[in-house]
């Protein structure tokens, strides 16, 4: 600053020149590329919502506040994935504050100060408040904690006061959102005729014989599809092909693999660390300081890697064991004995049988079914097999395995009490009842509160800097020698060892590309205004264990949908139409029984039978759940044959052979509720999408992050 003052004193012209140079340096060259707001364009615009511009400084400030809250709550800064999540949350909050608020205001929805007080410390406590002020020891919510907190709020740091203000704002917005969705819910009505129709679709049955010629019976190569036909189809069905901003790329990947010399040096490092760990006065601190992946010093049996468990019985206090290999990570351990933990750990499997509803009869049926399954297992049936066949939660596909868990409240209270009240391993003698239903439980690893003192050094074998430099030089030379997609394709033909990958239709805010997890730099390059289709990156992108050279092969524009954006999908649809016309024309000229028509038609024609098919869940054998065919057959009179018609998957001639109408019900409330529930879900989704569409949201975050 003193230097600039002195120069200004010497020469006003020189000072002005230097000042301008400094400004240009701070702004950067974007000023000349149409990206700076200084000369009329707005390079600071992160997005537009309902006509309101969101600028980068304001957006970034909110991101930083949210990041600070995350760090305060978790005790660590966010990684790349968490940072993306935080930015998404801030963006969604803008949508709520602007687009949704417009709708709420138009309806007069608001939360009064009295209502907010009631939600925080009154008679109708908001779930988030209840969660924040629940005593972790007793599991009970105490309103006095809230009142005491609020009394002390003004004495707390400004950051905490602002955090509480943001919290109150969030629960108020949640309440308004609930009011809005309740209005939607109340606007959904199902009459008796609709409920009756749904009941009939689920319970009326029909049987039929039909001739079916699938589209796939004609080879795709036999049907030529012209660009004019594709253009015509797209013009007629524009509503089915929504435009998106996307980019497609190809890229060459140059893996960085440790050399033989790197491996030798790594083993020497492991050996030295093992010797040093053996004599370290504070083994746990030494292990933590020298570990690539830190692990706790005290480990429950469930937390110990399987390969270590198998040898744990041979460990002696003070001994060094390993290295144990897990992928590219090698671990050495110093064993310090055992101690008793305050928590128990157990491993169990279960089969959950949930009642259809909360009525006593439904609960009784579920309990009886669970007890029958338990009896089968006691008689020798496979627990895992019965879990796969009967389990009603996500564990079923894994034979009911719940893995290891502790008695720390991670499981529902009744379940935890039953499991940890059982001694040993094996099938529990009775079913366990919880709020979710009835559980048949097998203890696969008995409860234990033994904790093991294991000072672990985990080192991941990695390439040396020399290896990294060598591969980078190779990738950089390739990027410079092959600056276009044409040159890249020519290089691929010459050198079969080049690893080429594709990524189709990447979206603007994509964070990963195939197995590349932190690929924002590549995505931003692909969406840069200066990158054209056919361009190579001319620079090397660095990933964890590889270097990438990318090429832009295609782009789509949400405001200008072209055939090429959906060429394959539209081609398949047009080809199916042409196949349907060809098959229908041939079938229409043939007379006789279905078998005779099939015989005269030739290869590809099938005659099949179905029995007791319902309209809502029907399957037509080879044709599958063809909705068009099901509707056509259901609408036929018994004993009548249809004309030739085209379904979803092929061409049909059908005969309805029998029909059994579902008996009339006195009360269709169950079906009314069923349809209404589905309607509410759809209405909520569609209205939310309509709000977003109406706000004409433009998301430009991809330009900055």
Features:
705 residues; alpha+beta; seven-stranded antiparallel beta sheet; 23 helices; 18 strands; 45% helix; disordered N terminus; membrane; PPIase_dom_sf; Periplasmic chaperone PpiD; transmembrane
The average pLDDT value, as a whole number, equals 88
Separation of the first and last Cα atoms = 33 Å
The number of distinct helices, counting runs of at least 4 residues, comes to 23
Provide the low-confidence segments as ranges: 1-41
Beta percentage is: 15-25%
List how many beta strands DSSP finds: 18
Measured as a percent range, the helix fraction is: 40-55%
> What would you report as the Rg, rounded to the nearest angstrom?
34 Å
Q: Let me know the largest β-sheet.
A: 7 strands, antiparallel
- CA-based shape: globular
Structural class: alpha+beta
